[in-house]
Amino acid sequence: MKIILASASPRRKELMSLITPDFTIETADIDERELEEKLSGTDAQKVSEYLALAKARCVFDRHKDEDVAVIGCDTSVILDGVIMGKPDGREDAVRMLTALSGRTHIVATGVSVVTKDQTVSFTDSSEVIFNPLDDHQAELIRRYCDTSDPYDKAGAYGIQNGGALLVQGIRGDFFSVVGLPVSRLGRVLSDLGFC
Fold first, then answer.
1. How far is CA 11 from the centre of its chain?
2. Which of 15, 56, 153, 186 could form a disulfide with 19 if both were Cys (CB 3.0 to 4.6 A apart)?
3. Distance, first Cα to last Cα, the chain
């Protein structure tokens, strides 16, 4: 039995190793933005689950005759019911982080595990509370946006890195906010007989 993580994210790779050291990585060749457009009107907290399923199925199609579990994942940052994608540049990152400041938003991580016998999909949602927008927060945002960290992340921040300074607290699973709900996924893989 083989486990494949359908993600190139170094964060997910690191978190997956907490569940098992025995997995490989293959990326899915899908256009996420095109899929998001097709899902327009869908509950924002479910979009990541649909994208995770598309990624897992894409990679699973390469291994249909094998005893594999393919894991697809996707994380969305949602403010007022609107998904905040990855920033287009520094100005966009500053805009996003400023909008999040003093507010509570949702981080929804969708996960889908596809095997030859079944598919298990779920969304793990957490609330993230940003510090109030004051001079200190505004300066932290400017400094953070001078690093490379915000630009490959939904909502323009990584809670596990410098983005942690912007966050007052979370209600939910820290690892899910990072990009992989480790405990819940570990249980699913165990129930499927893969861990």
1. 10
2. 186
3. 9
- Whether 149 is a known active-site residue: answer no
Q: Catalytic: which of 31, 61, 74, 80?
A: 74
pLDDT at 1 over 90: no
Query: pTM for the complete prediction?
Result: 0.93
- Amino acid of residue 122: F
Phi, psi of 70 (to 5 degrees): -105, 130
CB-based contacts of 38: which residues, under 8 Å, 6+ apart?
none
- The answer to whether the beta carbons of residues 77 and 176 sit under 8 Å apart is no
Please tell me the distance from the alpha carbon of residue 165 to that of residue 185, in angstroms, as a whole number.
28
84-128 pLDDT per residue, tens: 999 999 999 999 999 999 999 999 999 999 999 999 999 999 999
Q: Evaluate if residue 39 carries a pLDDT over 90.
A: no
3-state DSSP call for residue 179?
Answer: coil
Average pLDDT value for the chain = 95
Given the DSSP bridges, would you call strands 82-84 and 119-130 parallel, antiparallel or unpaired? Answer: unpaired
Strand partners, 167: 130
Q: Could you give all domains of the chain from N- to C-terminal order, each with its CATH number?
A: 2-191 (3.90.950.10)
